[in-house]
Amino acid sequence: MGVEEEFLLVGPDGSPVAKAAEALAASGNDNRESGTGALEPEFMEEQLETATLPRASLEELAQEIRAGRARAQDAADRVDARVAALATSPVPFTGTTVSRLRYLQARHTFGMTAREQLTSGCHVHVSVVDEVEGVAVLDRIGPWLATLLALSTNSPYWQGEDSDYASFRSQVWARWPTAGPTRRFGTPEAYHAAVDAIVATDTVLDHGMVHFDARLSPKYPTVEIRVADVCLHPDTATLLAALTRGLVETAAREALDDVEVTETYPELLRTAAWRAGRSGLEGDLVSPVTWRPAPAHDVVGQLVAHVRDALVDAGDLESVTELLGRLWSTGGGAAQQRAWFAESGGDLHRVAERAVEVTHS
């Protein structure tokens, strides 16, 4: 498995700064090929993206996540900037699109959706044997993706205001025409036919803009789960990766055992994701077991129970239990940001500054 994290570049006062190209050039990463272990630009000049090397060990992946954050900070240091694991900026901003042809085309085609897309996510890749297994996994994991979003929620503020959401990034991201949950595909042929049909509408620029919550990676032999906010603390990113791998492995085993897929309608999955983005770890989520509201703590427990065998076999159960305990003790990224806001007397710049500290903890 591997993890891609997107980060905000902020100045000394916590405001987003458009210095990605400068930082990459100064650190010698501007001409580096894309791929695992890379430090790359994202859609906006106020962002940097890291990618871990693929790891089987959760301990090694945790080290990779921290190393990627340190690598990004090293690049930012060269241009007097800081790296913050914030899924949206608490401080008002005007985004600057990276000067690449594809990104500039997207800005022209999608207007405000693109201009306001200063959001940072976390993508987890889990290897699969082949596309047959990959599609079987996609057909089974949909009901649990909203729970992964809830665990990661880290974007309560938008343009200087409290959005009243735990993840307002999920709301902004949902503006893209292909974002969100998908139906059951059944076969790789059906999956690719659906993607090709979307591209054929000439609504999106290319296959890379098919932004399903979970998809077959266009680059690697993996399933790519794209639903999460970038996690404030590196431990939460590690937890997210462990649960995601457990979810993929559980689905693959069900497919191998010919466990029948329960049809879940995309509109219900979208509703559950909205609830997760609104409530995060506070209040109720939609339980994939009952499809009724239940406390977030209970729904997360249901997820752990669902993937328990996979966690045990990977040797991850003890680590997941410990990491979940830490997450519950802090309340997660959104809750921490709001607590810092209250402690600072309403200073959103201070919220961003505190986020920088925790990003590298």
UniProtKB/TrEMBL annotation:
InterPro entries: GCL_type2/YbdK_subfam, GCS2, Gln_synth/guanido_kin_cat_dom, YbdK. One of its GO terms (molecular function) is ATP binding. Its EC number is 6.3.2.2. Pfam families: GCS2. Keywords: ATP-binding, Ligase, Nucleotide-binding. It catalyses: L-cysteine + L-glutamate + ATP = gamma-L-glutamyl-L-cysteine + ADP + phosphate + H(+). It comes from the Bacteria. GO terms for biological process: modified amino acid biosynthetic process. ATP-dependent carboxylate-amine ligase which exhibits weak glutamate--cysteine ligase activity. Belongs to the glutamate--cysteine ligase type 2 family. YbdK subfamily. This is Putative glutamate--cysteine ligase 2. It comes from Isoptericola sediminis. The lineage of its organism: Bacteria, Bacillati, Actinomycetota, Actinomycetes, Micrococcales.
